[in-house]
Amino acid sequence: MRKVRTTAIVATAAAIIIAGGLTAAVDVRAQPISGLPTAVPAPSAAPAALPSTSAPPTTVAPRPTTERPSTTKHPTSQHPTSQHATSKPPINTTPPTIKPPTSVSLPTITGAWRTAQQTANAALTYAEHNGYHTAIAVLDTETGQYVSAGDANSVYSSESVVKTMIAARLLASGQMTGTVETTAWKMITQSDDASANALYGRVGGDGIVTWAASYFHIANLGSPPPRPGWWGGTRITASGLVHLYAAIKRDPSIGGWLFNAMSHATRYGSDGTFQLFGLPSASTGVAVKAGWGFDFGDGSADFNSTGLVNGDRYAVAILMRGPSASYGAAISAVLTRCAALLMPGGRIPAPGPRKG
């Protein structure tokens, strides 16, 4: 998915696991979240016309407590196009097959000694062994403890993950009503590119990541796309993203709608791509936003899996970048395996006791 543009998964996920369990969080926010501005700057671009839709508003949809139900695959003819769209490889219409290599050596992790730092390191080891550039970040939204692995402070292409920022600004500016809301719901739940194209101008276009960093006081969140109007190329960091999700969670007027929509992600995106790779394939009850595409600018395949897990307690981002030939089943299978290693038994492990 791409275009004004591109759907998201920035390839290769993040990093920062501070040895010996979740250590004191590295606060990447510039300042506390209290005192958020009530006025939102006027968007720099005129709103685009919204696509027609007969779908009813969905803000009252109950949030599922288990894995989201499957839906039928969208035909490829429904893949949205625009003047910014470019061709992509055949879509991945089936869940990834996970076949971990037998040659990789992973840490022995058992019982109470299994910590989030250890599992993040194991996930990164697996990704790197398979040749993927990866960043992993985990933030406990209740205690502020933070761990990472890989280059969690380096930028990746957001792909469709930037759609969470589009929705956040619509909510912050009071625009999330009527047809706008219906369009935004489709943008998040189905990762629909045409909907993102229609809403991008309403939120200031390429300045959306700058707005999010300022509004929620997040340092090192990312930067605008190098190619103007190509929203999938928006740069994000795994570290900045998990802190953004934590800040959004603290604001019910934004987090309530957004994480409810993320928890209703459909099995297949509007372009027919299986979008529950990564976090939702390794756990249940996940509020997730994935992204996939080729928007880093070097021809690489970019896949991302981000969201809230374990009853919304932990914000997690796995960003991954790999060879263009890995696009689809190959990179999504590796990312899913990384998520499973990060969350043994489907959960982020709590900090374990220290020896001695």
Write the SSE topology.
Layout: H1 116-129, E1 133-140, E2 146-150, E3 156-157, H2 163-172, H3 178-189, H4 193-200, H5 208-215, E4 222-223, E5 235-236, H6 238-249, H7 252-262, H8 279-282, E6 287-293, E7 301-309, E8 314-322, H9 329-342
Antiparallel strand pairs: 1-2, 1-8, 3-5, 4-5, 6-7, 7-8
Helix pairs in contact: 1-9, 2-5, 2-7, 3-4
Give a quick precis of the structure.
The protein is α+β, with helices and mostly antiparallel strands and 356 residues long. The protein has nine helices and eight strands.
Please tell me about this protein's structure.
There is one protein chain. 57% of the residues are buried. By secondary structure, the protein is an alpha+beta fold. α1 packs antiparallel against α9, α2 packs across α5 (208-215) and α3 (178-189) packs across α4 (193-200). The chain is built from nine helices and eight strands. The longest helix has 14 residues, at 116-129. Strands 2-1-8-7-6 form a five-stranded antiparallel β-sheet, sandwiched between helices. The protein has a three-stranded antiparallel β-sheet with strand order 3-5-4. It is globular and about 45 Å long. β7 (301-309) and β8 (314-322) form a beta hairpin. The protein starts with 115 loop residues before the first helix and ends in a 14-residue tail after the last helix. The chain is 26% helix and 12% strand. It has helices spanning 116-129, 163-172, 178-189, 193-200, 208-215, 238-249, 252-262, 279-282, 329-342; strands at residues 133-140, 146-150, 156-157, 222-223, 235-236, 287-293, 301-309, 314-322. Mean pLDDT is 77; it is low at 1-48, 51-93, 97-113 and 352-356.
